[in-house]
Amino acid sequence: MDSITILLKCAIASGTSILFAAVAEVITERSGVLNLGLEGIMLVGAFSGFLVAHQTGSLALAVVAAFLFGAVFGLIHALLTVIMRANQVVSGLSITILGGAVASFFGKSLVGQTAVSFTNFKIPYFSEIPIIGAFFDQNGLVYLSYLFVILAAVFLFKTKYGLYLKVIGESPETADSMGLSVVKYRLFATIIGSGFAAVGGAYLSLADTPSWMDHMTGGRGWIAIAIVIFAAWNPVYAAFGAYLFGGLVALQFRLQAFGYDVNIYFLKMLPYIITLLTLTIFSSKKFRKIYGPIASLGIPYDRESK
Amino acid sequence: MDRKKDGGKVMRLTKRLHKHRLLDLFITIGSLVLSILLAASIFLFYGINPLTAFSRMVKAAFFEGYGFRQTLIKTVPLALCAFSVIMCFKMKLWNIGAEGQLYIGGLFASIIALRVNTGPAIITIPLLLTAGAITGGIWGFIAGYLKAKLEMNEILSTLMLNYIAITLVEYAAYGPFKGADRFPYSKPFRSEACLPTLFSDVHIGIILVIIFGVLLHLLMEHTRFGYKIKVCGSSRETAEYAGFNYTGNIITVLFISGALAGIAGMIEVTGVQHRLQPVISSGYGFTAILVAWLSKQNFLFSIVVAFLFGGLIVSGEELQIAMRLPSSIIGMFQGILFITILGSEIFKEYKLELK
Question: What is the CATH topology of the domain spanning A3-119+130-305?
Answer without folding.
Answer: ABC transporter involved in vitamin B12 uptake, BtuC (1.10.3470)
